[in-house]
């Protein structure tokens, strides 16, 4: 049987994350999230055949069939299936790698007739499937970035979402953005649930912090509309300042020291995803990148430049062993 294979990018979130989780945006009013797809990819190949489910990881490591079993059962895909997958995104990195895997799987199943719907509808399907898998509310931004890629602002409110793309910003952002893995894995379910619960219950601290994140998301979208990469970096710093006020569960002492030292060096930084671990996103324009590298090296953080994926998910070739 023929393989259906797809590749999709991970992302970094600049500002407005968490606001993409229902009912947060319904409680706060219209919200914006700005993120950037990066050249780190997840890939999935699927074909019909045999009996049951066979899953293998393309690097020869131990495969984890949990997500694939969950999705196939929930969408009612009958018969035997074989799945091969791989990812350049470490688990728990906060870069949306699992969401990119989910979108590749759904796109492959759609190609084989096991799932129906537009890409917009696949995002909604992925949202429900992931919430069921991790047993916690989850957001849309990772799925949207995986599908369409590039630099984008996503608006939520009024029962709908929409996205705007800003391709001209990609070069300017590549000149200033860097990744610094913390070496500590994070899980989004617990912090996201804590934030959502606080918002629903009207916790003053949570709502005040989310109000600041919302303002940062608005500022980031305005910077996108003006084409100002450095203004986006300032919005990123505003987002982290507000997000950090949610409580100690969003960060670690080591990360706090790194972000404080980077701020003193004239750079902005924040944790990607729900926080407490994963990957630092650093904005260090021009010569400040050398200063940022020195600061982070002293704290044990490596630093690498961000390469932006201008496109999104696409179909690729897979012959059972090699991707093309």
Judged by helices, strands and strand pairing, the structural class is: alpha+beta
| Low-confidence regions | none
Strand content: 15-25%
- What is the rounded distance between the termini? 18 Å
Structural account:
This protein starts with a strand and ends in an 8-residue tail after the last strand. The protein is about 40% helix and about 25% strand. The chain folds into two domains: about 5-165 and about 310-315, Ribosomal Protein S5, domain 2 (2-Layer Sandwich); about 170-305, Alpha-Beta Plaits. The strands form two sheets. Strands 1, 2, 3, 4, 5, 6 and 11 form a seven-stranded mixed β-sheet that branches. α3 crosses α4, α3 (about 95-110) crosses α5 (about 140-150) and α8 runs antiparallel to α9 (about 230-245). The chain has about 325 residues and is of the alpha+beta class.
Features:
Alpha-Beta Plaits, 2 domains, Ribosomal Protein S5, domain 2, 11 helices, 324 residues, 4-stranded antiparallel β-sheet, alpha+beta, 7-stranded mixed β-sheet
SSE layout and pairing:
Layout: E1 4-15, H1 24-28, E2 31-48, E3 53-57, H2 66-74, E4 81-87, H3 97-111, H4 119-134, H5 141-148, E5 151-157, E6 160-165, H6 170-174, E7 177-181, H7 189-200, H8 204-226, H9 229-244, H10 253-264, E8 268-271, E9 279-283, H11 288-298, E10 304-305, E11 314-316
Parallel strand pairs: 3-4
Antiparallel strand pairs: 1-2, 1-11, 2-4, 2-5, 5-6, 7-9, 7-10, 8-9
């Amino acid at each position: 049987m023929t393989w259906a294979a797809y590749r999709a990018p991970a992302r970094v979130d600049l500002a407005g994350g968490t606001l993409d989780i229902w009912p947060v945006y319904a409680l706060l009013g219209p919200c914006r999230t700005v993120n950037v797809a990066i050249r780190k990819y997840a890939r999935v190949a699927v074909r019909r055949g045999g009996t049951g489910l066979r899953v293998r990881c393309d690097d020869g490591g131990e495969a984890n069939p949990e997500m694939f079993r969950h999705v196939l059962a929930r969408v009612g895909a009958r018969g035997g299936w074989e799945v091969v997958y791989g990812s350049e995104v470490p688990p728990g990195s906060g870069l949306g790698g699992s969401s990119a895997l989910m979108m590749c799987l759904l796109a492959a199943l759609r190609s084989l007739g096991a799932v129906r719907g537009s890409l917009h509808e696949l995002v909604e399907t992925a949202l429900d499937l992931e919430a069921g898998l991790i047993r916690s509310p989850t957001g849309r931004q990772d799925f949207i970035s995986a599908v369409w890629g590039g630099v984008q602002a996503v608006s939520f409110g009024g029962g709908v979402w929409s996205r705007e793309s800003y391709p001209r910003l990609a070069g300017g952002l590549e000149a200033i953005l860097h990744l610094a893995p913390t070496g500590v894995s994070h899980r989004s379910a617990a912090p996201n649930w804590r934030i959502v619960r606080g918002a629903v219950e009207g916790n003053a601290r949570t709502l005040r912090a989310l109000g600041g994140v919302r303002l940062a998301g608005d500022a980031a979208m305005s910077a996108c509309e003006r084409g100002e990469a450095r203004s986006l970096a300032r919005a990123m710093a505003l987002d982290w300042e507000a997000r950090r006020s949610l409580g100690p569960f969003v960060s670690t002492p080591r990360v706090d020291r790194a972000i404080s030292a980077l701020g003193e060096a004239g750079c902005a930084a924040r944790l990607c995803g729900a926080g407490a671990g994963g990957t630092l996103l650093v904005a260090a324009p021009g010569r400040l990148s050398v200063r940022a590298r020195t600061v982070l090296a002293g704290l044990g953080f490596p630093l690498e430049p961000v390469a932006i994926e201008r496109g999104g998910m696409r179909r690729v070739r897979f012959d059972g062993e090699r991707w093309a």
